[in-house]
Amino acid sequence: MGLCVDIEKNLPSFKLKAKFDDSSGVLGFLGASGSGKSMTLRCIAGLDTPTKGKIILNGKVLFDSANRINLPPQQRNIGFLFQNYALFPNMKITENLEIGLKNMSKTQKHILSESYIERLDLKGLENRYPWQLSGGQQQRVALARALITSPDILLLDEPFSALDHHLRSNMEKELLHALTEFKSNVIFVTHNIEEAFRVCDDIIVYDKGTTYAKRDKKSLFEFPESLSEAKLTGCKNISVAKKVNDFTIYAEDWGYEIPVRYRVCDDIKHIGIRSHHLELVESSPFPFTIENIIENPFDYTVYVKNYTKIKSESINLTLSKDKMLFSKGDKVNLHFSIDKLFYF
């Protein structure tokens, strides 16, 4: 049981190819805007039709191009939280919640809507219209409407994108609490790296319509297996790489041969390390010169470069403010932790 997707859809700028299975928990779609994440959700929900392929949810075929099956949205039992919430502006909050409830008496609908109003902290807002609510309140109404029908899957399309930072943090906590009581599949679309890590259990990276294999979030961030995975999970330090021997890689952009823990494949293309995994040490085989220092609210980003190589690219590392004892032009030595390097 669970969700099985294997579809293609021809789009103006690329061909979307989405193939994955998911049985439980919160699955994240992480990728840049316009990479096909939201379109995949729309195809699952029946709001757009794939060019070909198959979508199966809990053993029920929602779409099968070969057998000409394409269930309408109302027969798919899917909860969808849109980016713009898509609330009906001429309906009060209670009416927005109850409109999707079928085969119930008026009393049953009212009891159920009241329970979701209570759960999502909407008490006292029942008779207001969407335009009378704040952004956070509108989102809670939209989430309640998506959950109230007991859907087989919940699709969340960048639900925090329209909220400011403070409200986004509060709503994220509320969403996580609501999802603890939802036992079916959840797909969470975002291009925010930290958000994806906090909310999701597993993550699929999207890059220009191509989906990479589903990964456990911790292994994905710790050891990305492709250039797209590394970049889209926020790694800034990536160099073109060449194999020197089974346990040494030459990082062309950094100008150094770097020892690694695991055997290097012959067709290696890149090596990378995250900024917070780099260390400054008293001595090492990797001397650099500080190229620039950028102050952030709580730390510094330090850019260093190997000036002994003409084509060297800068590397950045993160330093806490209490450790910032350097100036632009200073010579420093880097330590590349053998356990934190990744290469592919």
TrEMBL record:
Q: Which InterPro entries match?
A: AAA+_ATPase, ABC_SmlMolc_Importer, ABC_transporter-like_ATP-bd, ABC_transporter-like_CS, P-loop_NTPase
Which Pfam families does the UniProt record give? ABC_tran
Q: What class of enzyme is it?
A: hydrolase
Q: Which residues form the ABC transporter domain?
A: 2-233
Which keywords describe this protein according to UniProt? ATP-binding, Hydrolase, Nucleotide-binding, Transport
- Mind listing the GO molecular function terms for this protein? ATP binding; ATP hydrolysis activity
- SUPFAM superfamilies reported in the protein's UniProt record: P-loop containing nucleoside triphosphate hydrolases
Q: What is its EC number?
A: 3.6.3.30
Q: Per its UniProt record, what Gene3D superfamilies does this chain match? A: P-loop containing nucleotide triphosphate hydrolases
The entry's protein name is: Fe(3+) ions import ATP-binding protein FbpC 2
